[in-house]
């Protein structure tokens, strides 16, 4: 006979609605700030020329940009599934893809910590605790950093003109990825951090346990496949910027466009701002200017590429999020009744 479970408090639903309203308000507020910033630059450089550049884009070209972004998400979603299977999670591909895409709804939280919602869905659907699924999130972020750092290094080597400040950013991303994918090294770093801080032993103990759990991902076949999937995904979005600049009459070369896109994305992430909003746009416009692209082209190009990458991902996440929530709650209910 199953034990009776305590009924959830009546205030849970209002709290969830309040939380969702807060998250949607944050997303809307950041979108308004993004559009206001881009609009201010467009006004400073002349609305007529900016609108002229935007009018040159056809519906088919916008669809191509969105398709390339979708290719990025599918590649990285496949990598998420690879990591989930490597960790031993009893999930299927579409289930993992639902978690991955749905997490994009929380991209604009500071440091993207809101994407940890994926771990809650996994806990509900598989019964695995957050401690057991934490390595999945860590290795996914590390794989992204490694792929972007390697591609940025290639862009620096192969582009016609250098990208100011790109080498330190690439080395920082690659170094972080290296540490995060080597269990012993990461565990040692956690231990040293605890010795310096000397507080929160239970928290650091969990971090150390998570670090040791990364051993499953250290197989060469897993790491090489994950790196290839990540590289293909980010190359797709870099290629999107390259095509966009060609269509706007400002071809700076494939590797230069890829390098600028990756550097801007990493630089935006380093600011800690939600979704890198503000930092990524400023870096992209500045770097395009250094490549000789006039502001009346770089501003609309930056606006379009960010709308078809970051904001498109958020839109997809918002569309999938309610479905992912319903599926996870249903799975949790089924687990309880087994």
TrEMBL record:
Keywords: Cell membrane, Membrane, Transmembrane, Transmembrane helix
Superkingdom of this protein's organism: Bacteria
InterPro entries recorded: L-PG_synthase/AglD
Parts of the chain that traverse the membrane: 24-45, 57-75, 145-178, 222-247, 254-277, 297-321
Species name: Tropicimonas sediminicola
GO cellular component term of the entry, any: plasma membrane
Subcellular location, principal: membrane
Lineage, broadest ranks: Bacteria, Pseudomonadati, Pseudomonadota, Alphaproteobacteria, Rhodobacterales
Descriptive protein name: Lysylphosphatidylglycerol synthase TM region
Membrane topology: Multi-pass membrane protein
UniProt-annotated location(s): Cell membrane
